[in-house]
Write a structure and sequence with these properties.
Elements lengths: L11 E6 L5 E3 L3 E10 L5 E8 L7 H15 L5 E5 L5 H9 L3 E5 L1 H17 L4
Parallel strand pairs: 1-5, 5-6
Antiparallel strand pairs: 1-3, 2-3, 3-4
Helix pairs in contact: 1-2
């Protein structure tokens, strides 16, 4: 299983859903919330709200999401880990266009990185 101490700062990023359940709003509908996390520090560099009706984040949203991550270190990572069942094709393509290796991995293997973020998201009533 992967652990944060296996990585240097900005060596790898992880994309994941902050909650298994969508955020429900009366006015704008339901949203899935994605986070972009640095694997070494477990710092969340960006979040992205995607309408449940959309199959995946749009190309434009994917570009912005990765640019938000880039702005923290002024460079892209070597690797982007994505849960294997997550549908984020535009995001994967955008990452690869910047020379980032995209690795699909079972979400269970990412829990040491993303577990605390999900707990906090839930604790504050967002999930």
């Amino acid at each position: 299983m992967l652990r944060p101490n296996q990585f240097q700062i900005n060596q790898a990023w992880i994309v994941f859903r902050l909650s298994k359940s969508p955020i429900v709003t009366e006015q704008d509908g339901n949203f899935n919330v994605f986070a972009l996390l640095d694997a070494s520090s477990c710092f969340i560099m960006a979040t992205m709200f995607v309408r449940v009706e959309d199959a995946e984040p749009s190309q434009l949203a994917s570009v912005r999401f990765l640019k938000d991550g880039y702005s923290h270190y002024n460079q892209y990572p070597e690797t982007l880990y994505i849960p294997s069942k997550e549908r984020v094709d535009f995001l994967s393509e955008e990452a690869e266009s910047h020379g980032i290796e995209v690795v699909r991995i079972p979400e269970k293997q990412l829990l040491p990185f993303i577990g605390d973020a999900r707990k906090m998201f839930k604790k504050f009533g967002m999930a």
